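Colleagues,

Please find the record for the two-part complex below.
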Amino acid sequence: MAKAPVLTPQADDFPRWYQDLITKAELADNGPVRGTMVIRPYGYGLWERMQQEMDARIKRAGAQNAYFPLFIPQSYLTKEAEHVEGFAPELAVVTHGGGKELDEPVVVRPTSETVVNASFAKWVQSYRDLPLLINQWANVVRWEMRPRVFLRTTEFLWQEGHTAHATYEEARDYAAHIHREVYADFMINVLGIDVVLGRKTAAERFAGAVNTLTLEGVMRDGKALQMGTSHELGTNFAKAFGTHYLSKDGAQELVWQTSWGSSTRMVGGLIMAHGDDQGLRVPPRLAPVQAVVLAIKDDPAVLEQVHAIGERLTAAGVRVRVDDRTDTPFGRRAVDWELKGVPVRIEVGPRDLENGTAVLARRIPGSKESVALSAVAGLVPDLLEEDQQRLLSESRIRRRTLTSEVTTVEEAAEAALAGGVARIPWATLGEEGEARLAEHSVSVRCLVAEDGSVPDRDDAPGNVALVARAY
Amino acid sequence: MAKAPVLTPQADDFPRWYQDLITKAELADNGPVRGTMVIRPYGYGLWERMQQEMDARIKRAGAQNAYFPLFIPQSYLTKEAEHVEGFAPELAVVTHGGGKELDEPVVVRPTSETVVNASFAKWVQSYRDLPLLINQWANVVRWEMRPRVFLRTTEFLWQEGHTAHATYEEARDYAAHIHREVYADFMINVLGIDVVLGRKTAAERFAGAVNTLTLEGVMRDGKALQMGTSHELGTNFAKAFGTHYLSKDGAQELVWQTSWGSSTRMVGGLIMAHGDDQGLRVPPRLAPVQAVVLAIKDDPAVLEQVHAIGERLTAAGVRVRVDDRTDTPFGRRAVDWELKGVPVRIEVGPRDLENGTAVLARRIPGSKESVALSAVAGLVPDLLEEDQQRLLSESRIRRRTLTSEVTTVEEAAEAALAGGVARIPWATLGEEGEARLAEHSVSVRCLVAEDGSVPDRDDAPGNVALVARAY
C-alpha cells in the first residue's frame, strides 16, 4: 500500500493543498477572532527576511521609516470622498476606551493616507522640505468576509510608503521607481517570481488614487495574485488635508503624492508560486535557513561531523541550521525540512562517515546524491545560486504556458475560468467587457503596453489587458 | 542681550524641557486621537537601532520571533482573574466590524499573554516541545488618561517575550536570564544608562505574575523610570488556558511561563537620562548617525572634502551623514545636529581647508577643537568609544549622587519628593509603609538584596527598598 501523501495533492484540490501546507509546515494558524492569523516562527522568519530585503531597497530609494498611529478619527476617513467609499465597508471601529464610550469613534487604520496627510500638512512648509519620503512597517485591519490565511486576513502586516513631491512628474517618476526598483527587483530577484508589471484599469484602482501600478504573479493553479501596488495620488489627499508648500517663486502649491504597499500576502504568493506536493520550496536568497545539516543517528562521530559541516557552511556565508535532535526519528525530521522547503539538506549517518561522504538532497530540483564530506560545504553556495535561478525560470515558463492570446471577451472569460491568463487588446475589451468579465469573477489584472512596458494611460493604442481570476 | 535658549532649561521646568526637545529635535508629535503619537523619522531611527540591538540579544537567548493577532476576544481577558482586573480599565474595545455590530466585542491587545496561551495550549504537546521561546515586536494599546509622548501613550510599540518551560526552576532562570543578558546588557552597554536591577514588590507586580523583575533608570530630575520588566507567570495562564505537556514519565503537567517586555518608553528614558539644555545626547553605540560632516559653505573644494571625509569614516565603520545642504544657514544646521544629539560633528569651511584642518565638535563632553584633515577620520572611532563610556559614567555618578540612605518612611518620602532615590530597609518600610508612600505618589521602584543582587523573595533578610517618584 502506498503511503498517504502528507499534503492533499495540488491537482486534487489546490485550496486544500494550500491550507494543508500552511498547517503542516507550521507557517500560521487562524487566530481566535475570525479572519485574524497567528504567524508561527517559521512563517514569521520568511516575513522577517522579506522585511530585511525590502527595507534595504526602500532605504536605497531614499525613504525613511517612521510610525503613524493605529487609531484614526472617523472624520478623517471621510475627507477624501473616493477613499472613504472604498474603505468604509471594511472598517473596524473602536467605540469604547478606558471604560467609557468615546465622544467620536475611532477607526483602526485600514491604510494610513489620511493620518499621514494630517502630519504632512504640518511638516511640509517650503520646497526645501520636498520630496518627503516616508515608509512605515505596521499592521492594518480590513474586515474580511471570506478570510484566507496570508491572502486575505482581517489584520495583516505590511509596509506602506507615503511621499510628497513638488511636481506631478516627480511623483509619477517616484511611484514608477518604487514599482520597478523596490517591488519588481525584490519579487523577481529574491522571491523568484516572474511578476508582470502593469497598470490597473480605473475600475481596479486604489480608492483615492489617480493611477495604480501593480505587480501580478501567476500562481501554480493559473490564478493571479496582486503582490504589491504603487499609487499616484495626484493632489487628492493634499486638497483634502491642505498639504501645501511655498514654492521657490513664493506661491502656495499643493504637493503631489504617492503611496505604495506590500504585505504578508507575499508569503501566500511565495507558497502558491513555488510550492509542490511535497511542501514549500523557498528561494535561497529569501530562505531564513538555506541549508540544514542533519545527524541521522545519535553517534559522537556523526554529531561532531554535522557541527563541523555547519561551521564550514556558516564560514562560506550560508544561513545554516544543524539538526541534531536525534530523539526525533530521522525520517520525520527529513519530511519536516522538506515541507518547510529548505533548499539544501545534508544528511550524515555512520555509514556515510565510513565512506567519507554525506547525502546532499536538493529540494528545488528534487535531487539527491552522495558527495565527499570534504567537498560538501564548498559546493553549497553555487547550488543555492543555481536553485534561485531555477525557481525564477520555472516561474517564467509557467507564466508563459498559462498565458494565451485571445480576441473576444468570451474567450478571455473561458481561458481565465480554465485556470489561465488571457491577453486581449484593451481596445477590444474596454470597460464594458471588463464589467462582463466581472460577472464571472474574472478581472483585468493589469494593462501592459504592446512592448511589455507599463503604459502611461489606460487607452494608449496597443494596450493589452491581462485577464484572470485572482486571489 | 543673550540669545533665547532653544529649549526651556531643565532647571526651570523639566517636563517642558522634555516636550520642547521632542518637538525641536523632530522625534515625535501627538497623533490626532488623544494619547497616540506619530514617531518621526529621527525618533523612529532611534527605535530601529534599539530594535536591532535588542533583537540580536533576544535571538542569542534562543527566542524566535512570531506574530499574534491585535484583536483578542473579550472573553479571553477574563480567564485569568488578576490579569483582567489589572487591564480592564485601560482597554480599547472594537464593537463594530465590516459595517455590522459584532456578536462578541473584541479588545485591542494591551499585552498578549491570553492570546499567546491560546496558541501555546495547541502547540505544546510533549516535553520535546519545551522550552518554547517566543518573542514578538508589536503595537499595544492601553487607554491613557494622562498621556506623555514615549512615556505613557495610548498606543506604543514594544517587544513582548512569552515562554513555556517544563519546570519552575527553568522558567525562573529564563526570566532572570532575559533580565540580565538581554535587558540590563542592552540598557547599560548600549543605552549607557546605569539601571538598577531589582524585584518588584507584590503591590507593583504585573497583573497575573508571581514575580516581576525590573530595570529602573534614574532620570536627570531624580525621578525613576521603569525601563523593562521580566515576569515569572508561574502556572497562572497555563491553568486558565489548559497549557499542558506530557512529561517524560507520561504525566500531564502544566507548563511554567515567563513574559517580558520593553517598549518605545526607552526612547523617553534615553532623552531624560542623557539630554541637556542643548538637546539630546545619543550614546554612540545606539546612534543612527554617529558623526555628521558639515559643509559650512557652498564651495567645490569644501564639498569634495566633506564627501571624502564621509567616505573615510564609513570605511572606518562609523555611521555617518554628510550634510551638504548649504542652502540652509550653517548655524541652523549645527544647532539642529546638536539638538538631535549626534555625538561627533566635523565642520569644514574654506578657511579650515586653507589650514588643512577641520573643526571637530563633540556633543557628549561638549568640546570643540581644530584637527588636521588627514587625522580626523582616524580619530573618530576612539572618541566614540570614549563618549559611550562617559555617558555611562555620568549616569552612574548621577544615580549615586541622587540616592540617599534613610531609616524612616517620612525621610523616604521627603527624599523622593525632593527629587531623589531613597534606600530604606524593606523590613522597616513593609507593605504598610509602601501604602503610606503611595499617598504622596511615591513608590517602591524595586527591592534589591544587601549585596546589590536581585533578591529571590520579597522578605529576604537585608532586602533594601528603592523609593522614588516615577514616570
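The first strand of chain A starts at residue 28 and ends at 30.

Comments are welcome before we finalize the supplementary table.
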